[in-house]
Amino acid sequence: MENKNKDLEDLLTKYKPSGLDESFNHKINSIFSKNSDDDLAPSENKIIPFPFIQKIATVAAIIIAFIGSFFAFLNDSNNSSKSTTSTATNPSPKKDNNQFIPVRAENIFEGLAEDQIILSQDKIPYQGLRYQFSDSFIWKNKDDGTIIEMKVPSQRLYYVPIKTD
Fold first, then answer.
1. Quick count: other Cβ atoms within 10 Å of Cβ 49?
2. How far apart, in Å, do the first and last CA atoms of the chain sit?
3. Of these four, 41, 136, 154, 164, which has the most CB atoms within 10 Å of its CB?
4. Taking the mean position of all CA atoms in its chain, how far away is CA 156?
5. Contact at 8 Å (CB) between 102 and 83?
6. Residue pLDDT, tens place only, 8-21
7. Per residue in 127-164, pLDDT tens?
8. Strand-by-strand arrangement of the 125-141 sheet
């Protein structure tokens, strides 16, 4: 029976109905063989081993993971100590922490732009003037010291009569 299979294998390799070119097939086989580094020229080999750099990268990854774990532990312990002290010192029910009070409001003049000239029903020409401002508002939460700052651009349009003689 083995002899029959061997004859069949020989026939299949002889005819190669869907076979590849022999040199191309050799390159594919050399990729998966253990001696692939010897078969390929250094310019064709796309993987360049750097054992020293690999060790440094591994050590760096371990250090980064350790530092991240350390800061996560500090953050957890800080959060847990805040929650225990607040409940021990303040047994009264919690108030709403979203009580922000206004601290400062500013209206800063940014510039002036001329708008279109229009005619009123009385046939008097008016020049449009756009005053551009930057309004800023600051609110503070007295309970936890949180500050919200908001800057909003605004403009005001005034129509000034044009003197005609």
1. 9
2. 121
3. 136
4. 37
5. no
6. 777 766 665 555 66
7. 999 988 888 888 888 888 888 888 888 888 888 898 87
8. 100-119, 125-141, 147-161
